[in-house]
Specification:
Blueprint: H1 2-15, H2 26-29, H3 47-56, E1 79-83, E2 97-101, E3 124-129, E4 135-138, E5 144-153, E6 156-165, E7 170-172, E8 187-188, E9 192-195, H4 202-208, E10 223-226
Parallel strand pairs: 1-7, 9-10
Antiparallel strand pairs: 1-4, 2-3, 2-5, 5-6, 6-8
Length: 231
């Protein structure tokens, strides 16, 4: 339990409410992490679909995935559930925001910034926080195919697509879908600088939690190592 709590604290600190800027590498200070290929691009409702949506909402126009939320009989709900994991899928993570966006999430602004760790974008439609055991459940989720999901803590963020959500039941998600990204191709990883030490080998910890070796590179990686005195 202590190991899990410590790991969650470590990830929260590394996730950072603002991006790090490397000393002596001004060209990298403006480097923003961008999700490649996993963004959500909401489509436009056809005339027939819009008419149906208006009828269901009493004449109020719904927007994007709002039109796919349904009312279940007997007070039930459409939900998705799972566990948020570290990149290696070895430890569950606490207090991670998991949500269905109703628009494309914003790209993180480059450079250093100060913002709340709970700040999310993309007009969240249905949200949850992971518990002490990493588990979460999101209610009133839109139904259908290819529903987007965002897993985020600070500036550590992964955007995925749920292949299918069945209405009025719980839809369990696999850990492969709900873990944090291992590399910048899978999602956003904060630009992080670490000074090596003989006492606390932090660089080894990041490898153990699943960060790809390719990210330990001052040229293009998200984890930059600097040799400390005595290390």
């Amino acid at each position: 339990m202590f190991r899990h709590a410590w790991l969650g604290t470590c990830l929260a600190l590394l996730a950072g409410c603002g991006a790090s800027k490397d000393a002596g590498n001004d060209d990298l200070g403006d480097d923003a992490s961008v999700v490649e290929g996993d963004g959500f691009n909401p489509g436009t409702e056809s005339g027939l679909e819009l008419d149906a949506a208006l009828a269901e909402t009493g004449g109020t126009t719904c927007k994007n995935l709002q039109c796919k939320q349904v009312t279940c009989a007997g007070g039930g709900t459409t939900s998705v559930s799972g566990t948020v994991w570290n990149p290696a899928k070895t430890d569950p993570l606490y207090n991670v925001v998991v949500y269905v966006p109703n628009a494309t999430p914003d790209t993180f602004k480059p450079g250093i910034s100060c913002e709340k760790c709970g700040t999310v974008s993309g007009e969240p439609l249905a949200t949850a926080l992971s518990g002490a055991d990493g588990k979460f459940r999101i209610d009133n989720v839109p139904v259908g195919d290819n529903i987007p999901l965002v897993i985020q803590i600070g500036r550590w963020r992964r955007q995925v697509i749920i292949p299918k959500v069945t209405e009025c039941v719980d839809n369990p998600l696999s850990g492969d879908l709900t873990r944090l990204p291992k590399n910048k191709k899978e999602g956003d990883i904060p630009l992080t600088a670490i000074v090596t030490s003989t006492y606390d080998p932090t660089e080894c910890i990041l490898r153990k939690i699943g960060i790809d070796d390719a990210e330990f590179n001052i040229g293009t990686g998200r984890i930059h190592l600097y040799k400390g005195s005595g290390a």
